[in-house]
Amino acid sequence: MKFNKKSILIDILILLIPLIIMFMLNPILPDKIPIQWNLSGACKFIDKEYSIVLGIVPFALYEMLKLKYYRK
After folding, report:
1. Which residue range forms the structural domain that includes residue 38?
2. How many structural domains is the chain composed of?
């Protein structure tokens, strides 16, 4: 896979934008954040401090898809 400035810039933006949004929303988030639901309501929660990890998920998914489909 060839790396150029455009692909590196896209990678950085996909990493930084969700993280910036999570940092901005962190003060107004509740202490417990539901992450998994069932038919009776929220069943699994995470603490507010771990919500930054949720901002890394889009970047990780993007990198996995890029590795799978853009291998040459």
Report:
1. 5-69
2. 1
Q: Is 18 helix (H, G, I), strand (E, B) or coil?
A: helix
pTM given for the model: 0.63
> pLDDT tens across 2-30, in order?
667 787 788 888 888 888 888 898 899 89
pLDDT of residue 31: 92
Amino acid at 8: I
Residue 48 exposure: Cα atoms within 13 Å on the Cβ side: 10
Q: Supply 1's token pair.
A: 């896979």
Q: What number of other Cβ atoms are within 10 A of residue 55's Cβ?
A: 19
Note whether 58 and 52 are within 8 A (CB): no
Is the Cβ–Cβ distance between 45 and 32 less than 8 Å?
A: yes
* Average pLDDT of the segment spanning 41-46: 80
